[in-house]
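Sequence only, no structure available. Ideas?
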Amino acid sequence: MSVSHTATADPEPDTAINGGVDRVDPTGDARWDADLAACPGATFFHGAAWAGVLKESYGFTPTYFAQRDSAGLRSLLPLMEVDSWLTGRRGVALPFTDECPPLSAGPESFRRLHRAALDHAGTRRWKYLEFRGGRTLFGEVPASAAFLGHSLDLSRPEGELFAGFDSSVRRAIRKAEQGGLTIQFSQDIEAVRAFHGLLLKTRKRHGVPPQPFHFFASIHRHVLARNKGWVVLARLGGVPVAGAMYFHFGHKVIYKYGASDEAFQHLRANNLVMWRAIARYAGEGYTLLDFGRTAMENKGLRKFKLDWGSVERRVEYARFDRREGSFVVPGEALSGWQIRLFKVLPDWLFQWIGSALYRHAA
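Reply:
I predicted one. Tokens follow.
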């Protein structure tokens, strides 16, 4: 397969490519989500809302390769161009996404999408293409990163769901229900602001820089304000002590962000937030809750997700280095000493690093 090395000034608008492949920007297609809903395997991350968040927050360029027929969208390879003076220009599917695999109607359809993406990568001089999910579609290639994924079947009565939790989870929920907590489902900006405050505390504990508030404000505009998700907050006497952010598409839900104030950990508010979200989504007819990705070495988070009765799977990424012409395995993004340093930085510097970092890290 040959690729062109001729650079162009800027990405082109929606373009038809040989082989029946279109290069599209979902944020400019009013029919996108309706077409996507009929595509097997589609999740919230394939939708226009997440594309809008990434485009608005960080200036990434949606570069989605799609095949359609008379019945609608058949196959999709979603990519974002990340153009950074610090980390270079590349295609990522998709930034800040736990898992967003290609959607394929068959091997030949996928090969056409992949070929079109590689040709475009050559034209735009991308360093590499990173695919977050669907590694086996590329054949026998190495995984550039591997995580654990967990999902919960919501298509059961509430009592049966509750009975499927580990006994420690059931006890924690009962304790939280007796602790004077109130649970709020919200889609307004003030709830997002309260959640972000909790997130700053949580990320500092873990030594991971937080994404800036403008990113979550964009989530409010593109996701929450369009009824594609909820912020769920647990409060004690009006004070937010734990929260989570959920996104939904079709019949599937994604648990994207969670946060809490460690001073109130004894109340088990996180457990009550999760349970109320599970009960609400199940009651509204949603069939699957995706708990997001978990690092292989994070035994505590893995146990937390398994204790809800979830099913575990392996999530693998694949990275094609265009200059080497092969799939590669990159080094670790953060080392232990960096995490320890982040934990002790002044809050203002810690938050500034988050604001400066994510545009380049993607």
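The domain at 148-314 is CATH 3.40.630.30 (Aminopeptidase).
Hope that gets you unstuck.
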